[in-house]
Amino acid sequence: MPLELTKIRNDFPILSQKVHNKPLVYFDNGATTQKPWEVINRITEYYKTENSNVHRGTHYLSQIATDHFENARKYISEFIGANNQRELIFTKGATESINLVATSMSDYINPDDEIIVTAMEHHSNMVPWQQLCLKRKANLKHLTIQPDGSLDLNKLERLISPSTKILAISHISNVLGTINPIKEIVRIAHKHNIPVLVDGAQAIAHIKVDVQDLDCDFYAFSAHKAYGPMGMGALFGKAEWLDRLSPYQFGGEMISTVSFNRTTFNEIPYKFEAGTPDVAGALGMEAGLRYIDKLGIDNIRKHEDDLLEYATAKVKEIEGVSVIGESKDKTAVLSLVIEGIHPFDLGTLLDQMGIAVRTGNHCAQPLMSCLNISGTLRASFGLYNTKDEVDIFIVGLKKAISMLV
Amino acid sequence: MTIKEKAQSIVDEFSMFDDWMDKYSYLIELGKELPLIDEKYKNETHLISGCQSRVWLHAEDAKGIIRFTADSDAVITKGIISLLIKVLSGSTPNEIVNADFNFLDEIGLKSHLSPTRANGLVSMVKQMQLYARAFKIKLNN
């Protein structure tokens, strides 16, 4: 079913704004998405009528807040196809989710062990593993990519060794838009009893995510890239893993009994949620995902694929433009370089025309050096973007290029 | 001309433009007049941190007068550093250290550049003043 774009755009108050006196064209959805009224209202409503601390009060408001918070956990875990809401830990975002696993895994990493990432990882799914390796004198290995921006999947078996302890990989690349074959990768890793963590930050709002079907051991994602609030996210982890791992932050909420000498920890998910959680954030996150579900993730996928195809064909007509990342399985992200022109110059001039894009290395410096480029201009689409906006972007791009050459 | 006078003439030139395209075209043109840094100085030591595009800056002391040379891989950034050099080059270390940079606000450069680039602008000014301070100390010794 095609999306009703006029109606949808009215759901997002920020989109009617003018930037430098021009209608805003927001093509920076890979960095963060805008928020619909449903999300904004849900957060406001919480603070207006439900605010209270969760899991401890005997009073009415605390009970309401706890119920809603736990319902959000249930809804979000179902949204990603998890079997049990105990397997869903609230965090402040994909980055914290990954750091949680990397820190808690530390006990299992010994000198000369190996951790595998890929060449296309965002720093948030690279640096935590690299630092863990440095701390534990282990080795970080990476799976390379092919010229079209897809992974060298046939090299994975050779990269795996008896010392490999975990494989960490993004579901969708934030630079290339490549959708990685997670199911196949998990199958290979599990053959060798290696757990897999998936960084789903770029996937959650764009394609159907089903952690049981993927069979991954961990799945990390953020609310703010899925039409929800910033500073909120979640980690899915299989119960068998979460039960084994030690907590990485300590305090209230996550304990069961405490004496001066010892503490017994609470059960999952609570043993990983020290301190008062961001209840409004969890409710906002739920509202964002409900919004996606209302429109239908498959309809969104189809719409964004169409936009990508349309925009890709249009930019390729412009002289000197190369598209970075042309895997046959990709979505929502269009990265490009233009011969002889610095992406920052383009980004600055496009901004003057009201067009928001991202320029630079996109927090993926190792990928940039693999591709031998210093940065790209990235247009990343969301469910509210239109072909008319792509046309404005193309006109703007041509204008900027004419000023810069 | 003093720094103040040079800054004022830049402000005057910018005030003639009423649309952003002319402003940026002018900046890009300014970049073409940039006194280019000697290739041998285009290294890590001369790179200014805090800019999203790369900017190399060098300063030379010619009898108590500072002359700057620079380069960048982005043309708008090149225009900005060129503008700063136009205003500051040829002055004494003391004048540069005490210079007033309000003219950047007046020409709308600070607010019209993206935040990261505005930070880059601040880093450029800081680095130029750092050179001036170093020369000042050398002169006093």
Structure overview:
Chain A folds into two domains: 5-31 and 297-404, Alpha-Beta Complex (Aspartate Aminotransferase, domain 1), CATH 3.90.1150; 40-293, Type I PLP-dependent aspartate aminotransferase-like (Major domain) (Aspartate Aminotransferase, domain 2, 3-Layer(aba) Sandwich), CATH 3.40.640.10. Chain A has 14 helices and 17 strands. Chain A has helices at residues 5-10, 37-50, 60-79, 94-105, 127-136, 156-159, 182-191, 211-214, 239-244, 279-295, 297-316, 343-352, 365-371, 387-404, and strands at 18-19, 22-23, 25-26, 88-91, 114-118, 139-143, 164-170, 196-199, 218-222, 233-237, 255-258, 263-265, 321-324, 333-338, 355-356, 358-360, 376-380. In chain A, helix 3 (60-79) packs across helix 10 and helix 12 crosses helix 14. The longest helix of chain A has 20 residues, at 60-79. Chain A starts with a helix and ends with a helix. The mean pLDDT of chain A is 96. With 141 residues, chain B is mostly helical. Chain B has a single domain (3-140), classed as Alpha-Beta Complex (Sufe protein. Chain: A), CATH 3.90.1010.10. Chain B has helices at residues 3-15, 20-32, 75-88, 93-97, 102-106, 109-112, 115-140; strands at residues 55-62, 65-72. In chain B, strand 1 and strand 2 (65-72) form a beta hairpin. The longest helix of chain B is centred in the C-terminal third of the chain and has 26 residues, at 115-140.
CATH C-level class of the largest domain in chain A is Alpha Beta
Number of strands of chain A: 17
Strand content of chain A: 15-25%
State the strand order across the main sheet of chain B: 1-2
Strand pairing plus helix content of chain A: what structural class? alpha/beta
| Overall tally of domains of chain A | 2
Gap between N and C termini of chain A:
43 Å
Rg of chain B, rounded, reads 14 Å
Mean pLDDT of chain A: 96
Primary descriptors:
heterodimer, A: alpha/beta, Aspartate Aminotransferase, domain 1, Aspartate Aminotransferase, domain 2, 2 domains, 7-stranded mixed beta sheet, 4-stranded antiparallel beta sheet, 14 helices, 17% strand, globular, B: 141 residues, mainly alpha, Sufe protein. Chain: A, 2 strands, 11% strand
